[in-house]
Amino acid sequence: MYVQGFLIAVPESKKDAYTKMARDAAEAFKRYGVLEIVEAWEDDVTDGKVTDFRMATKAEPGEKIVFSWMIWPDRETYQASGEKMQSDPFFEQMGEMPFDGMRMMWGGFTPIFTMGRD
User: Is 87 inside any structural domain?
Assistant: First the structure.
């Protein structure tokens, strides 16, 4: 198992557009081998004194935090998918994203502990 995580600030007014984009993109990711995708919209995000999700994404007033992750079968599948997506017309035709991609964070992670999964 390999986990790709994301943290994004999305204008609250673009929640529906973000949800549509995420659903559409999920179909493409599925073709590349992703096993599971979770898109989570801010519900209870507190402001920190040193750091927090808002500071990390430089969220602006009226923006909500989206925390999401994808579960891949392994690191190799994850890496191969990135290369294939570079030439996939679907991603080229997606158009403007409903968030500021410059403030988006993502990374790949190797699980060291899981609970509730086989």
Answer: yes
Domain with residue 11: its CATH number is: 3.30.70.100
Burial group, residue 24, by CB count within 10 angstroms (0-12, 13-18, 19+): exposed
pLDDT digits (tens, 9 = 90+) for 16-74: 999 999 999 998 899 999 999 999 999 999 999 999 999 999 999 999 999 999 999 99
Q: Which two tokens stand for residue 110?
A: 């190797």
CA 48 to each of CA 23, 37, 43: distance values in angstroms, whole numbers, following the listed order:
31, 27, 16
- Provide the token pair at 52: 């927090």
C-beta separation of 37 from 64 below 8 A: no
